[in-house]
Amino acid sequence: MRSVHVVVEGRVQGVGYRYSLLLEADRRGVAGWVRNRSDGTVEAALEGTDDAVDAVLAWMAEGPPGARVDTARVTDAARIGSTGFEVRDTQ
């Protein structure tokens, strides 16, 4: 089981990034959450098998059509213990 925290910079707000990430995480069986931050970045916590988390991270590095990902900073994180994936309010 792998748990990570991710902050994505670029044109990632207003392009369907969070909703698309929700669909991708659900498709891969990855739990966690995603939210916009007031500084224009997107923040997420992911938890799942190594392969599933790696696949979602690869998707996050590209994002949905219309997005432009400049950087995606990934750090290991404590387990979140969630069973689903949710879109949270802006921080």
From TrEMBL:
Enzyme Commission number(s) of this protein: 3.6.1.7
Active site: R18, N36
Domain of life: Bacteria
Keywords associated with the record: Hydrolase
InterPro entries xref list: Acylphosphatase, Acylphosphatase-like_dom, Acylphosphatase-like_dom_sf, Acylphosphatase_CS
Domain Acylphosphatase-like: start-end pairs: 3-89
SUPFAM superfamilies, per database record: Acylphosphatase/BLUF domain-like (SSF54975)
Reactions this protein catalyses: an acyl phosphate + H2O = a carboxylate + phosphate + H(+)
The UniProt record lists the keyword Zinc: no
The family this protein is said to belong to: Belongs to the acylphosphatase family.
Name of protein: acylphosphatase
Organism: Microbacterium plantarum
